[in-house]
Amino acid sequence: MKADVSAIPAEAFENAAFNTPKPLSECTVALLTSASLHHPEQPDFEARDTSFRVLDPKRRDYLLGHWSQEVDQVGYGVDYNVVFPIDRLVELQRNGTIGAVADIHLAYAGNQFEVAGIRLDSGPEGAKLLLGAGVDVVLLTPV
């Protein structure tokens, strides 16, 4: 697997964006998972689907749409927090570690052979949506 992954070209950024963040205890935090999660009424992810689904943090009816053979779905079946730790985020808000849990969270399909659609289209679109929702920090949960 390492040999296969090492052959995939990766973007090199000359200048990394940096800002001085506010304290985490004042931040609104969103989750972004690559587990292809969606709610029952939302379409499942198709092969090569670079779109995203908006997840409601008040619901707990998340469906796992990840179809990769390399993903062991047993952990998710026992506790969805393995791939989407929304309950842990709520706990962090309650104990004051973070300011707030965002009203929206995002899910993408992580098993992509070509990521240009995410990098150029749905990634920036999702970032704009999260910024518009007042999100300060995004916790990535890659699967």
pLDDT averaged over residues: 87
Rg from alpha-carbon coordinates: 16 Å
Number of strands: 7
Termini separation? 15 Å
Number of distinct helices = 4
Number of domains: 1
Shape: globular
Order of helices and strands: HEEEEHHEEHE
Poorly predicted regions are none
**Percent helix:** 25-40%
Portion in strands: 15-25%
Structural class by SSE content: alpha/beta
Largest β-sheet summary: 5 strands, mixed
Descriptive tags:
two-stranded antiparallel sheet; alpha/beta; 5-stranded mixed sheet; 17% strand; 143 residues
Structural description of this entry:
This protein has 143 residues and is of the alpha/beta class. Helix content is 25%, strand content 17%. It has helices at residues 2-6, 74-78, 86-94, 116-132; strands spanning 28-33, 37-38, 52-55, 63-64, 100-101, 105-108, 137-141. Strands 1, 3, 5, 6 and 7 form a five-stranded mixed β-sheet that branches. It has a two-stranded antiparallel ribbon with strand order 2-4. The model has no long low-confidence stretch (mean pLDDT 87).
